[in-house]
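Recall that a protein's primary structure is simply its ordered list of amino acids. Everything else, from secondary elements to tertiary packing, is in principle encoded there. The following example makes that idea concrete.
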Amino acid sequence: MNYVSPEALAATITAIQQNKQYATIDANLVERIAREELAKRTNKKEVVKHARSRLRQAGTAYFKRQINYQRALEQLQTATALDTQKAACRDIMALHTSTAERLDILDDLFATLSQHLPPATSVLDIACGLNPLTIPWQSLEKDATYYAVDIFADMMQFLSKAIPLLGRTGQATAASVIPDVPISTVDVAYIFKAISCLEQLDPNAGELLLHGLNAKHIVATFPLQSLGGRKKGMLNTYQARMATLTHDQPWTVKEFIFNTELVYIIEK
């Protein structure tokens, strides 16, 4: 890899973060992507362009618009009954494309998971987006602890306040999970539609997560449509990818197909 000067790296990071879409992304991830792009090319504009493109694939593409997290928090604070809490969570999840796609299958998805997983005392939600807002649908013990990880600092600050409002203790951390896979030991780890995104940054991401997570069960899912709503052979593509990731492993793997999401439960 070519030498990257500290001055060039700092200037590139500053240029990337001048666009507010990228300003709250985990600093370590921005630095890593900037360093990798600087090692590939010399044109400064191209470096920033390609770095932003990779970061967009990793997360910024899923925001329909900038989320007002203070307003979202106020919605949750005023929703005390379960039905109003669920309604508030649905409204907020609709602001993020990934969780918005899950709204139509929400009841069936977590009903299926509850049939095949014991109630969890600890959950790790990888590259979570707004998925922790599905806590009211999840089969969790009353004293369950919920750990959430994503690259957006402002989202994690919101979720750190939202999780207690949903009746659980927890921790929301802004970090990249690749290559530093979280080491917490948990009952269940969620990797909801994240493997395909993370493999845009590192082709080994799926393998690193499935092998590295200290979880009794892993729920890994894949999208069945593009951000534009097209279903372009994604079912076969991701079935083949999961077959490769789990080949020759002593794991029990169950597959479930929903309208917008391919779901796997892996027992390690």
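The mean pLDDT is 94. Residues 6-58 form one domain.
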